[in-house]
Fold:
Amino acid sequence: MSQEQAEHGPGDSYSSSEIERLGRERPEAFKSAWVEVGFCFSLLGSMFVAEYFISGFNVLLPSVTNTLHIPPQAATWPASVFSLVAGAFLLPFGRLSDLFGGKAVFVGGLVWFLIWSLIGGFSQNYIMLIFCRALQGFGPAAYLVSGIMLLSNMYRPGPRKNFVFSLYGAFAPVGFFVGIFFAGICAQFLSWKWYFYFGSIMLALVTVVSVFTIPSDGDSRVKGVKMDWYGTVTVVSALLLIVFALTEGSHAPKGWATPYIIVTFVLGWILFGAFVYIEGWIAEQPLLPRSIFAVPGLKPMALALFFQYGVFGIFIFYASFYIEDILNASPILTAAYFTPMCVGGLILATVGGLVLHLLPGRILLIISGTCYTLCVLLFAIIPVNPNYWAYVFPAMLCATAGIDITYNITNIFITTSLPKALQGVAGALINSILFLGISFFLGLADLAVSQTADRGKRESYKVAFWFGTGCAIFGVIVMTLGVKIGKAESGLTADEKAELERELTETRTNE
Structure:
């Protein structure tokens, strides 16, 4: 058997031209084009609403704070607790996707998210609001992981998968922009409650479409898989405590010298060490198997992504505050400032999906790393009365180019490199790096800003942007030197490659 042929199934042999064709045509799981459109709408919509509820709440927060009389020491929690819970529970939901199938976890996550988003709009005080925001976080933790699993299992490696993944990544900045836009409208003309009601309407639509258009994937459940309860308890507790300390450290009564900050931070790292020990030496079926890091280049890629996603979080958070607080833009004008991210994301998705199989991934990752650096650098050097087109506009374009290209390339690489049995783990790993990178580096940036508050808001925000610039440079260096990815062409799946290798080994043994 030549390298251009592979055993796809019992008695079926595909040539390289047939593999190319399979990478372009509609998967058999979709009985019609409309079913595929509905499937894509569900997956893209799920990413959209997740970003909607993350981004816009920062713009809405001043209005919520005044209405619900949120005390200063609790002001950041309605915004941060959502991402905190979502990031902490991604790995357990990756295992649940393997246990129950991608569709069940995906639809369940959407329904849960819808319920608590609607209840959140009826919050009578800030404690109820924080509680609802925390419970909201379980929804994206479930469906973002299972969404990656569904996408990777439905589509073979090739241009069609590249295009769908590109659109999936593009709807992050689109959802981010729409979240800011609706938050601005609600803050200025309506009530903050309508931000939750609008989001709930969008969620309801996505949920209904997903129920009827996502094909059943019960056969994707991994046989004999078990829940790693010890790993789940330690990793969730560790991440909650560490991110809590990072988020709260700058706002505690005595800063990082506050006893409960020190205790939670140290205890969190102790539990994280326990998680690593359990996964490596005790767990029969670890949440994060060692084999996943056997993929060449995955370790440096994970490290680089951790820094780069952190840079994106710093940019999104502090750019919105800089525009509102320093440039004195209204909520609606702030949304308009972010328009290039929305438009640029859609353009990049369309073009990127058509060229990912033509250009080497390494070149694209270097370009995206450069864009990460430029987006924060432009705000670090922005003058007092900046020209929008010279500083803000290119920064927004660079930010969307950085996140879109990186997210798409690395998603395709990771999911294509892993077998079907590890697709739930792949989705959990991808989104864990995203959420935890943003939370971790936002905590460090917040610490830097609070320690330089005596310089004034403008200069302290610039400290955050300079910190982001350093992180971006480190990320692009690691990605350039440690990761080598070729073109995202049509090819065999990881399972088919493993089967082919097994058959070739048996053939050589028999000879």
